[in-house]
Design brief:
single chain, mainly alpha, Cytochrome Bc1 Complex, Chain D, domain 2, 3 domains, two-stranded antiparallel ribbon
Length: 322
């Protein structure tokens, strides 16, 4: 589903690597007329590959949109993630070794930069709100909507809906921040369905390329977007699972021995949430932040081997570092 790229044209001067900041809006004063010049040729448009989509969602946070090791999470770490543009990455390791590394992760114990660890009460509150929502979400529909969003929307709106996708700077105005709590409170599901279907501003409508069921699924995923979701997805999913259910098999494979029940992270299901007060969860969140280290996550609960191979194909096709 590549139709959305048609409205983007050339990504001239788009910020490279880390997630770009929201572009500013220029002054409205009229400027002197300039001589007409021929527009530069538009390069061939392309479809986002599945490997690129998976990489952007699962890897770009640390390694950057194009693998340079300069993602937004990297700015919070004391050790910079390695560049994935090094040619020796693919000559010194077999594909099976790379697949295993991505699926099972590595216990790197990379420390956070102390000044950059998110630990304000506002962030604790945001994460707490997302934790409370986890057992209430219809995950089949959310995941279906996430797949469509990644194919059609992530290039402009970004992985977390903040309007900071890799092509956002090519637009005449910054995309709306879909994760903003004020915006989420101003629109209902029917508003979102109508906007996605008919389009708005520079965004084309999707009613001709998506079924109503797919449109509803996208709405369900958009409703998950929030600062708390972003925080949870970046720092909690690899251990606790995107749905709040830890992938026990992944833990067993990653660490070599089966984990006892007491060693596994808790499942954030309805039964667990009913036994936890907000203050108890806040204490746990603050404690987690004070652990002050992060490792390369495993993705055995989020990706399969074929999806990892698609990521490797995407990385291989990137120009090597000079």
């Amino acid at each position: 589903m590549w139709w959305v790229v048609l409205v983007l044209g050339v990504v001239a001067g788009c910020a490279r690597g880390a997630l770009p900041a929201h572009p500013g809006v220029g002054p409205t004063a009229q400027l002197p007329a300039e001589p007409l010049v021929a527009a530069p040729p538009v390069p061939p448009l392309r479809k986002f590959t599945q490997g690129e989509v998976s990489y952007i969602r699962h890897c770009a946070g640390c390694h950057g949109w194009e693998g340079w090791g300069n993602g937004p999470v990297a700015q919070q770490l004391e050790i910079t993630p390695p560049s994935l543009r090094r040619p020796e990455l693919f000559t010194q390791h077999t594909e099976a070794e790379l697949v295993a590394r991505i699926l099972l992760g590595k216990d790197l114990k990379v420390p956070f930069a102390p000044a950059a660890v998110p630990n304000t009460e506002a962030e604790v509150t945001a994460l707490l709100g997302h934790l409370r929502r986890l057992p209430t979400l219809t995950w089949d529909k959310v995941h279906a909507g996430e797949d469509v969003y990644d194919s059609l929307c992530v290039s402009c709106h970004g992985v977390y809906g903040r309007g900071d996708g890799p092509l956002a700077s090519a637009l005449p105005a910054p995309p709306r921040d879909l994760s903003s709590p004020p915006y989420q409170s101003q629109v209902n599901d029917e508003d979102l369905f109508r906007i996605i279907s008919a389009g708005k501003g520079a965004m084309p409508g999707a009613k001709d390329v998506l079924k109503a069921e797919d449109l509803r699924a996208v709405v369900a995923f958009l409703r998950v977007l929030s600062p708390g979701y972003e925080f949870y997805d970046r720092f909690c999913t690899s251990c606790h699972g995107s749905e709040g259910r830890p992938p026990a098999l992944a833990f067993q494979e990653a660490f070599g021995t089966p984990l006892g029940q007491e060693e596994r992270p808790p499942a954030f299901d309805q039964a667990y949430m009913q036994t936890q007060t907000d203050e108890h969860l806040r204490v746990w969140i603050r404690h987690m932040l004070k652990e002050n280290h992060v490792g390369m996550p495993h993705f055995a609960g989020e990706l399969n081997a074929e999806q990892v191979r698609q990521i490797l194909t995407y990385l291989r096709n990137l120009p090597p570092a000079s």
